[in-house]
Design goal:
The chain has eight helices and nine strands. It is an alpha+beta fold and 280 residues long.
Length: 280
């Protein structure tokens, strides 16, 4: 069929198309503009949601750490603890205050008392009396916390804490020097003190509780630096020497992307409509 056989558009069709073309172009420009604005807005919402989620998880981790720091602080700045753990070893008192009962009440995975010579005076693992040594249980990095805990004032303890990996499990450990409530005379002189060591296991159940309680989806810990992924967020967890030992990771909230998902159908329909109109 030659070009001469193709019937020319009618006069009415040419007039119609001249009238419709500007409208179609205007609709197309408007649709593109709206799509750009919506996409920018959605990305902004995702960024704000990610920042809020990072702040929330950082705050939850900080609260978890301060809670154990406070517990070991309270139990080390206590005359009764010194009488029953240092002056003499009262195992019944230890069971009730740093061992079996404390493990149940405060969710301690392990607790130890170390002598000035760094020997383990008494130990509990999962609330059960144990023959484990604190240094063999957590490794030589525990020495960093013990040293820092002993280096503070003789008038008031100050906990030192950090994260440890043990057999693939993550633990948060806090150490504090046993200190008299109101030291006088020789008690104020600098010396190497006994220390209390408390640990909490960062278990899957614990992470699930946080995840469900605060809408932090997919919360888990990683022992390797997480790969860059816009769908996942992470914060580092520091070892006693300050280096990142592990990372908490979770799903990035994406309210903007969730908003865009149902709009994709309408956007596709609009494009098809414009194409069809352009063929008329």
């Amino acid at each position: 069929m030659s070009n001469s056989d193709v019937p020319p558009r009618s006069f009415e069709a040419r007039i119609f198309w001249r009238l419709v073309t500007p409208f179609v172009l205007a609709v197309l420009v408007l649709a593109v503009s709206v799509a750009v604005v919506i996409n920018l807005s959605a990305r902004g919402q995702d960024r704000i949601a990610a920042e809020s989620s990072m702040t929330l998880v950082d705050s939850l981790v900080g609260g978890f750490e301060r809670d154990l720091d406070r517990l070991v602080y309270d139990n080390s700045w206590w005359d009764e603890a010194i009488e029953n753990l240092v002056t003499s070893l009262n195992k019944e008192w230890a069971d009730d205050n740093i061992g079996t009962y404390a493990a149940d009440l405060y969710d301690l995975s392990a607790s130890f008392v170390l002598t000035p010579e760094n020997e383990t005076r008494i130990a509990y693992v999962e609330g059960v009396p144990s023959l484990e040594g604190a240094r063999s249980y957590f490794g030589p990095d525990l020495d960093v916390l013990v040293r820092d805990a002993r280096a503070v004032s003789m008038f008031e303890p100050e906990p030192a804490s950090g994260y440890f990996m043990r057999d693939g499990d993550l633990h948060f450990v806090a150490v504090s020097a046993l200190t008299r409530e109101n030291p006088i005379g020789a008690e104020t002189e600098r010396r190497v003190r006994h220390v209390v060591v408390y640990a909490r296991h960062i278990s899957a159940d614990f992470l699930n509780e946080i995840s469900s309680g605060f809408a932090v989806d997919g919360l888990a810990f990683a022992s390797e630096p997480p790969a860059a992924d816009q769908h996942r967020l992470s914060i580092p967890l520091a070892a006693p020497d300050g280096h990142a030992l592990a990372w908490l990771t979770w799903d990035a909230p994406r309210p903007g992307a969730d908003l865009l998902a149902p709009l994709r159908i309408w956007r596709t329909g609009a494009v098809i409509l414009v194409v069809v109109l352009s063929l008329l």
